[in-house]
Amino acid sequence: MGNTHGPGDHRSQVARDERRDTIEALTEVSDHLDFALRLVRSTVADRDRLADLTARIRSVEERLKDDRYYLAVIGEFSAGKSTFINALLGLDLLPTSALRTTAAATRITHGPEFSLLVRFRNDGIRYVYPAGRTEGAASPLGRMLLHLAPYLRVPSDTAGILSLLTADERIAPHLEYLEVRHPATPLRDGLVIIDTPGTNAEVGHTEITAEVMRGEADLAAVLSPSASPASSSLTGFLTEALDPALLRRCIFLVTKMDHVEEDEHDDLLNHVRRRFARLLDLDDVVVQGVAADAVLRRATGRPLLGPEQEYWADIFPTTLAALRDLMQRQRIIAVSDHLLRLLEDVLGEMGSELEDAQRRLAEEEAELGAVRVPDLAAFAQRHAVRGGLLVDAGAENARRAVSAMAAQWQQYTRRSIDAAIDAAVTPDDMRRVIRTDVPDLIRRDLPRIGDVVQTAVTAALADGAKQAEAAVEGAFEAEYAKLDQTTARVLRPNFTVVNGHALADSMLQAYESNVAGVTQQLRAVRQQATRSGPIGSGVDQWFTSMPPPTGPRKGTVPPNMPPPVPRHSGQFAPPNQDRPVPYPVQSPPPIPPPPGAQLRGGLGGFAARVADSLSSTDMNLLRNHARAEMHQTLQTVATGLAVQIDEAIESATGHYAGTVREHVEQYRAAYEQTVADMVTEHHRREAILAARRTLLQDASRQTERRRATVNSQRERLSTRGGTRI
Known about the structure:
By secondary structure, the protein is of the alpha/beta class. 62% of the residues lie in helices and 7% in strands. Pfam families: Dynamin_N (PF00350).
């Protein structure tokens, strides 16, 4: 004998299935909350934005813990919204003359007494009425009402204040938030009613209604009057304000059905159902008829107006029970929907931010490509050549400053030698002058030559080098300024483009150090400044092993004296060439001993041989002979001295030119590193965007899966047992 199951067993199974679906939905919501928190914490960097999103997620979590049921009431002004809400509450609470300009949703919640919570636009104060012992115009809210409408008569009762807030055209447009608290039984049982602005009212009401549905309402009762059911204005408003998911959380109520003949009820409701389904693109539309005036009359003890009102008043409890049942089932789905909408908002913002960031990055890349030096090596070489030319100009100035130095020394020394020769009285005096006095006179002023060269050469070359340095600095500073003005410089405060002035300061320190080094070496020019030895030190070498004179002779450069080196020779390359300039130059032979220590060699020995060759006793002849020999000797020294001065200039020029090239290279390397850092930063941000894009795609896929789960749960909870209201 088979098992039999009665209606009670079926109802028990339905109840168990509902509990199971409810538990699953609650579990899913908890998982949605965790996912939302992880997502915003991993993607939102702005602290204020993160705090705002976290607070919104927490509010959804609190909404899940809230066991009340939120019903939004939507409809045109002619639909009888206030009467319907009063019928739900069983009392005359809301005035039925609310204005179209009322732009705030009115929330009706449970409270121990009839009271109001009010907030006005452009005013951060929250007003509570009644408040303490003051009432009417003397209360804080009353004073605010008088501020908005100076000649307003402010009532003292709460119902009168509520009527002013919703029905007075001087007050209603300023209302931003209104909460009505009342101890009515339906409210005590957990019902929260949200009266939205009329759908055919002022611009901006669409967003208010949409926000209520997205963030608060579990279900919406959309009211449509029987005289003009499912009007184009109402369906147009719903299509604009609510997306398909929100529309599926609506029940459509045709009001004032007591004005319709009984035999037209079904036809009218079916017509409305088909029209809403077609215009709102809904597969399953729940449509019910109500007569709120009849329900309210019965609740308040007023007589009903005929059998039609009797009928609708009798069936309203069934409609109300079905409405409450649907709200209970939709509550969890609504919470999940609120949360997923928040996630979709976050993902939408992330997508927009990524697009903006990618666009900015592309602009920065193009900007950097446009302002950076295209051929840095050629740019640096060009300015190195220009710097070398400026140093060469300084060398020419130095050469002009000291070019006559050897001749001037020769002329001055010649007069001294002539005076010494003329002062000789006897042949022995003449030999002493030639042997001792003349070498001393020649050597006497040679040490001063190095000091004069130091002063003149350092001044001229340093000026040229500074001009070269200023030109290089100016060129690179202009390029740095271009980099400094790019968008990439602004977007990352901790990224600093190398400043040309800061770099120039360090370059100048190195430059001055090098100048000091050259100056120090020029100070030692008598020890180590030319290839042929210190200036004047070649005197003895030039005369070593020179054959004794036999009489007056034409002046020639001694054979062991190095010939003058032309400028820009192979060894001393021009500053703008890449061949290294040896600095300091190779050390010359040791410093010669003091005069008189080498009498048979060098200048002293040569002079001694000249003195020994003087055999005539005719003083005039001796003077002429000695003068000719010493003049030629002096010419030999002056020629060698000129060569040494030129070599000293070449050596210093090479050093300064090398310093300028080093500075150009330092600027080039620093600029190259700056651009490389900017490119690296660009790549770093590209990688971050790619990672965020991947995260966004993954989060979007997860959100879509969660959305599908919520839709499936909505269908199960709404059609449990194969029935809908």
